[in-house]
Design goal:
This protein is mainly α and about 130 residues long. It is built from four helices and no strands.
Length: about 130
């Protein structure tokens, strides 16, 4: 029984991670475009990239990772997005500490923040948004 549950969670995490890779490309791509090309402030650029990636990730995770059939799509999306916004706060805080206080390269800081936030997002969505 527990092995089946752990195996199911493991494979959901693997799928969630693959979805996250697509979100990572969107996130980093938009962040770079906004920050470097359009010269938008780095934390606003980070928020834009993160937010668009979160919307993409909701759609893919609903369909592929969690196979959600919840008819309350608006409620489910809001839950996912609130968790993502909390993740954005965690993400921004980590980047601010690493980049502004410890002078770690911005993109390395963003990479570290991304790893932490992936874990937050997966478990929060598993237990809240897509809980059966």
């Amino acid at each position: 029984m527990y092995v089946i549950i752990i195996d199911d969670i493991f494979w959901k995490f693997i799928k969630f991670s693959f979805v996250g890779l697509s979100g990572l490309v969107i996130d980093f791509g938009l962040t770079y475009l906004c920050k470097e090309i359009f010269k938008i402030q780095k934390f606003i650029s980070n928020a834009i990239g993160f937010t668009v990636a979160a919307a993409n990730n909701y759609i893919l995770n609903r369909i592929w990772t969690f196979h959600s059939k919840n008819p309350e799509i608006t409620t489910e999306f809001l839950s996912f997005f609130i968790i993502s916004l909390i993740g954005l706060g965690i993400n921004t805080l980590i980047i601010w500490i690493l980049n502004n206080k410890l002078h770690v390269n911005f993109y390395i800081s963003k990479g570290v923040a991304t790893i932490v936030v992936v874990l937050w997002n997966f478990f929060a969505n598993l237990l809240v948004t897509f809980a059966k």
